[in-house]
């Protein structure tokens, strides 16, 4: 039996799909543990995994970003990021680029020591590591430990080619395409990060593991065995890294019939869909639910310009939305406001979704056959929105110029449109998924003599 340790950063949006992959590995016969911070022990338990305490970054998001207790510096960066999203796509990406060195390569020496200690205690055969946990990848490379890379976002998170850079979208949806001149500061910032991260990697390797190979570019360092992309294998995607096997799972969620609604949520759905009314789910993720101004406009547009009902995940802003003059007067059979929602369980009864273009929301909609309106703010969301439009399973609008009529018209078009392409893509990604990826990994990953067996 292979012994595997799955290492996740302390973010719910990363740990959740990693725990699903870990559960699939366990069902395929491996002994699997999730290594993360203590607030994620429950996630490991629910997935049937062992749990190992490991901190790989200073910042965290346990489910609602603004409510997660963290150091003041990290909280300040979150506030700066949210403020930047209101200034548009380039401003948000620039802020993320400026924060990147502080929150993505923090304490590499300490992480290496902790990974070394964990390895000596547990002696796994191999690891699965989140691509964005750069200190962990650096530690595993330094220690010559076998690992598979899990790419939690768009496949371009692993840049391939001289013109590709982490933090610079490889493509944009038409409605948010910046002027090329406006992208010049962003390109300069991501190139500077590329150089700085690579220099930091080389310094660490020179000190900790001078016998190990030095990556030409830090952001391209990944497993030499396998890279698991939590994404569909679209034919127009940028090339995957040469060398490792590229495994496109299509999605990394529980099976559609394994996430049944509990009675309370079933009652909510029954109330909102009385008479056959379609249901639209509105959620902007664990960070961007703080943009309740955009949530309010999107929900208002659906209520005023379609006949659908709405469930909205509003995080810490649920009370604000409930007291909004327009939304607060909405009939109870058309609107339900909650802090959090069981998104995967709701999608099978959802006719359309409005979301930020996060990878989990996108792939969960794809695997449920649900078309979506994309309101991208940052990160890889612009690239994902582009791919969704090209695949014919979504539309995109600029969240910062959104108005109720345009939001309503876009959702109305989704509700009235053909589902042929959504259904075809759904069937395609369901043919793969986490269980397929687990079986492939168990074939591809090498045995480690004297470990795990």
Write the layout of secondary structure elements.
Blueprint: E1 3-7, H1 12-27, E2 31-36, H2 41-46, E3 50-53, H3 72-85, H4 89-104, H5 108-122, E4 126-130, H6 134-142, E5 147-151, H7 184-208, E6 226-229, E7 245-248, H8 263-272, E8 279-283, H9 285-288, H10 292-305, E9 309-313, H11 318-322, E10 335-338, H12 343-346, E11 352-355, H13 359-368, E12 372-374, H14 381-391, E13 394-396, H15 404-416, H16 420-430, H17 433-444
Parallel strand pairs: 1-2, 1-4, 2-3, 4-5, 5-6, 6-7, 8-9, 8-11, 9-10, 11-12, 12-13
Could you walk me through the main structural features you see in this protein, from its secondary elements to its overall organization?
The chain has 453 residues and is of the alpha/beta class. The chain folds into 2 domains: 3-250 and 432-444, 3-Layer(aba) Sandwich (Rossmann fold), CATH 3.40.50; 258-429, 3-Layer(aba) Sandwich (Rossmann fold). The chain contains 17 helices and 13 strands. The chain has helices at 12-27, 41-46, 72-85, 89-104, 108-122, 134-142, 184-208, 263-272, 285-288, 292-305, 318-322, 343-346, 359-368, 381-391, 404-416, 420-430, 433-444; strands spanning 3-7, 31-36, 50-53, 126-130, 147-151, 226-229, 245-248, 279-283, 309-313, 335-338, 352-355, 372-374, 394-396. A 7-stranded parallel beta sheet has the order 3-2-1-4-5-6-7, sandwiched between helices. A 6-stranded parallel beta sheet has the order 10-9-8-11-12-13, sandwiched between helices. Strand 4 (126-130), helix 6 and strand 5 (147-151) form a beta-alpha-beta unit. It is globular and about 65 Å long. The model is unreliable at 61-69 (pLDDT under 50).
């Amino acid at each position: 039996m292979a012994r595997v340790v799955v290492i996740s950063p302390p973010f719910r949006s990363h740990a959740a799909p990693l725990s699903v992959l870990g559960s699939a590995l366990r069902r395929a016969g491996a002994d699997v543990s999730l290594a993360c911070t203590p607030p994620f022990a429950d996630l490991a338990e629910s997935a049937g995994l062992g749990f190992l305490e490991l901190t790989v970054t200073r910042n965290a998001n346990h489910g609602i970003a603004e409510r997660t207790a963290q150091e003041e510096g990290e909280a300040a960066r979150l506030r700066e990021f949210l403020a930047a999203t209101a200034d548009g796509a380039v401003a948000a990406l620039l802020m993320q680029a400026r924060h990147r060195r502080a929150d993505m390569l923090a304490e590499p020496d300490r992480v290496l020591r902790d990974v070394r200690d964990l390895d000596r205690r547990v002696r796994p055969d191999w690891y699965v590591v989140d691509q964005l946990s750069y200190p962990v990848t650096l530690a595993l490379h330094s220690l010559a430990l076998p690992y598979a890379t899990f790419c939690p976002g768009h496949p371009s998170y692993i840049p391939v080619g001289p013109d590709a850079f982490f933090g610079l979208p490889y493509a944009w949806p038409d409605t948010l395409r910046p002027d090329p001149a406006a992208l010049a500061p962003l390109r300069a910032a991501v190139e500077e990060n590329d150089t700085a991260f690579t220099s930091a990697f080389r310094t660490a390797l020179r000190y900790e593991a001078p016998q190990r190979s030095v990556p030409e570019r830090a952001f391209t360092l990944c497993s030499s065995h396998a890279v698991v992309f939590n994404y569909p294998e679209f034919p127009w995607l940028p090339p995957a890294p040469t060398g490792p096997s590229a495994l496109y799972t299509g999605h990394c969620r529980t099976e559609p019939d394994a996430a049944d609604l509990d009675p309370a949520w079933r009652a909510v759905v029954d109330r909102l869909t009385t008479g056959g009314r379609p249901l639209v789910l509105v959620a902007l993720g664990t960070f961007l639910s703080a943009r309740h101004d955009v949530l309010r406009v999107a929900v208002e547009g659906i209520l005023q310009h379609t006949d659908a009902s709405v469930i909205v995940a509003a995080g810490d802003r649920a009370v604000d939305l409930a007291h909004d003059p327009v939304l607060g007067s909405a009939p109870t059979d058309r609107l339900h406001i909650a802090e959090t929602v069981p998104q995967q369980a709701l999608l099978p009864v959802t006719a359309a979704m409005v979301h930020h273009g996060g990878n989990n929301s996108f792939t969960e909609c794809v695997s449920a056959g649900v078309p979506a309106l994309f309101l991208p703010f940052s990160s890889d969301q612009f690239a994902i929105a582009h791919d969704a439009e090209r695949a014919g399973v979504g539309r995109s609008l600029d969240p910062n110029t959104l108005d109720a009529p345009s939001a309503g018209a876009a959702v109305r078009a989704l509700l009235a449109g053909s589902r042929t392409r959504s259904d075809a893509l759904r069937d395609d990604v369901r043919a793969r998924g986490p269980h397929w990826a687990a079986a492939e990994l168990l074939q591809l990953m090498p045995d480690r003599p004297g470990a795990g067996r």
